[in-house]
Amino acid sequence: MQGRGDLSAAVWRKSSYNDGQGGSCAEVTDDFPGFVPVRDSRIPEGLAVVIRSTGWSTFATAASPDRAPASDHPGGTPHQPS
Length: 82
Known about the structure:
This protein is an alpha+beta fold. Helices cover 12% and strands 22% of the residues. The longest helix is centred in the last third of the chain and has 10 residues, at 53-62.
């Protein structure tokens, strides 16, 4: 995706990395191979950030609640893998 991509016909879905409680919601579209456009679901007509798929994967892994320090995690304690 070089230059400006046309996201007007994109099919958006809630990211699997949302909090699941209806609060902060990022939407992504799978319509652009190699890239992940991301937007705020509360402002669908607003801007989208387009990230390379590899960058999104790295970000999503780093932002996972399983990796967050206890002091930064909502509720105080992250899920601890068994």
